Structure to design on (298 residues):
């Protein structure tokens, strides 16, 4: 039977036979079953937000909006009537137990799921029927995958070029690579090195930079801290913060370290069993007792 481990970094499911680990800091205080977490989280539905509540959090000017989304994979429905609203230049972090549908929301926005009903709009225009390539090239939405997506046998420069495959010409793509290398000297110093030789933090920087090749205004970021040593996590969040604050990027994030994600994000959503249970400002959710007990280890 799986167990959930509550630490001061978040709540994680581990196998009983494996050594329990956190996020590199803190200690294990309490062990509770996955069923207990799920049952307690479902009680949050008593305060489930309305769509008007979500629009208010987006200052009533949603850049990207979801209404009544039912979606999944094949015939399996994962999301059950999800709403979402995020404004230009805002950051939104999705938290919740494993299997709550967090990554499925990102997949649905980008076109990786079967949308059964509901709408996804950007700037008031439906993007339901756009392919992932069209989402990137036409709608300005880029996806930074959870798993390592670099090409290890290609150089840093070549990896960045791959991010510009939808550019009008190879020359235009190369010019954009040069702009990115000017922005990130760490990558510029290693532009002729094989990407497989980079550190974990440098690989994540490369993945983020490659997503910027098409100049998107919305970044879908799936688990930015996963697999990183603690010393690299802060630098990754610093990069995302700079993209939001100085370039006005809108960021929709799923983050395993709920505390870190809510500290970063303007808005936080709590998902349970494919439904939205709670929403609020990130710093306010950090202070809520129920959220703290279930996801923040306090």
């Amino acid at each position: 039977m799986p167990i959930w481990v509550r630490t001061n970094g978040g709540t994680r499911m581990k196998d009983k036979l494996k050594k329990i680990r956190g996020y590199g800091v803190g200690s294990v205080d309490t062990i509770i079953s996955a069923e207990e977490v799920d049952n307690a989280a479902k009680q949050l539905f008593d305060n489930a937000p309305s769509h008007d509540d979500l629009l208010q959090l987006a200052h009533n000017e949603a850049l990207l909006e979801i209404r009544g989304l039912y979606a999944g994979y094949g015939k399996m429905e994962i999301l059950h009537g999800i709403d979402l609203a995020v404004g230009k230049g805002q950051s939104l972090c999705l938290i919740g137990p494993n299997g709550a549908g967090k990554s499925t929301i990102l997949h649905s926005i980008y076109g990786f799921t079967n949308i059964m009903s509901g709408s996804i709009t950007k700037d008031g225009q439906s993007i339901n029927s756009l392919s992932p390539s069209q989402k990137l090239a036409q709608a300005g939405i880029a996806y930074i995958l959870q798993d390592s997506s670099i090409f290890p046998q290609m150089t840093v420069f070549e990896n960045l070029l791959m991010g510009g495959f939808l550019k009008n010409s190879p020359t235009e793509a190369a010019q954009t690579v040069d702009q990115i290398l000017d922005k990130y000297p760490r990558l510029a110093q290693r532009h002729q090195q094989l990407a497989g030789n980079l550190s974990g933090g440098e690989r994540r920087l490369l993945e983020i930079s490659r997503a910027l090749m098409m100049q998107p205004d919305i970044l879908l970021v799936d688990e930015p801290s996963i697999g990183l040593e603690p010393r690299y996590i802060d630098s990754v969040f610093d990069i995302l913060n700079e993209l939001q604050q100085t370039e006005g990027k809108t960021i929709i994030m799923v983050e395993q370290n709920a505390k870190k994600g809510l500290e970063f994000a303007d808005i936080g959503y709590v998902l349970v069993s494919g439904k939205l249970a709670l929403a609020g400002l990130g710093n306010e959710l950090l202070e809520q007792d129920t959220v703290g007990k279930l996801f923040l280890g306090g």
In short: The mean pLDDT is 87. Residues 64 and 125 are 9 Å apart (CA to CA).
